[in-house]
Design a protein that fits this description.
The chain has about 350 residues and is α/β, with parallel strands linked by helices. The chain has 10 helices and 12 strands. The chain is globular, with a radius of gyration of 21 Å. Bound molecules: iron/sulfur cluster. The site of iron/sulfur cluster has 13 residues, from loops.
Length: about 350
Amino acid sequence: MNNGSDAINLLEVRDLKTYFPITSGLWRRVVGYVRAVDGVSFDLRAGETLGLVGESGCGKTTTGRAIIRAVEPTGGEIFYRMDDDTVIEARSADRRELQTLRQQIQIIFQDPFASLNPRMTIFDIVADPLRVNNISSGSELEDRVADMLQLVGMSPAFMRRYPHAFSGGQRQRIGIARSLVMNPRLVIADEPVSALDVSVQAQILNLMLDLQQNLGLTYLFISHDLSVVQYISHRVAVMYVGKVVELAPTEKLFTEPKHPYTQALLSSVPVPNPEVASLGQSLEGEVADPANPPSGCYFHPRCPFAQEICRTTEPEFRQVTPDHFTRCHFSEELDLPGVPE
Ligand code: SF4
């Protein structure tokens, strides 16, 4: 699997913005905007897993949904390389292009209990995308569903049962089967294990790793859980109040963070070795309001290293070492501790 910096980009996201209007009064006059996604840029390389991590409300889920236009972006560009090597820009795509795009990009949802229709059999759930797109019918459809269930470690003998007959882990396997039935190249996994017990989480993560290896999948893996992201990702992007503040290969980000927010997140991850001291400063203060973000660097009210320029001037997202990007005026000067190896 080629997932290094020489791999081709499957997805290029440029200055993506998604603002939600705040309305007031009888006439629902627009009085402001929630900047859920506020200028996000990243590349997703073919065959890699990019972890998108941050606190609740940082815009990571909206970013995933904006990429397939499940929510309408306000600005920016989203370039997707199709399997015939043509490139579609998702925001300017026509209906036909968008339909093709949505076949090649699929989503795995967080909650395996809510995301499966309790009135549909497993067969109907997994077969639904093929039926809707008129791709398959009859015995061919049944064979395809059986293959997908086997692929995710489920017996095809269960296909006439309903979701309530299965555990959380089994339901998530069914959700994965549904998301893969259209042969996507890119899967956006939105907190796919956070509703599961820890022991089951590992099984689903290992299944996703196997599927990536066998099918050549590319993942955008969205999670608030740094340990999970560390386990599955080749690179990690950290989001804060609608912006990516750091992006680096996973090991680099965990051992040599360059942004104070990343370091603060890392310091809240339990260290399994009692002989290793904690990483120090934990994160204090409230997450900034995306409807009324602070001036300058959005992180400055919580940052122990903030200086005058941080209050007045927004830092650019820039490369500080090869393949390592941050949004901080002082990344080169700060000596931030990472997670002990
Ligand atoms: Fe902290 Fe300033 Fe860097 Fe923002 S730019 S993270 S406030 S040091």
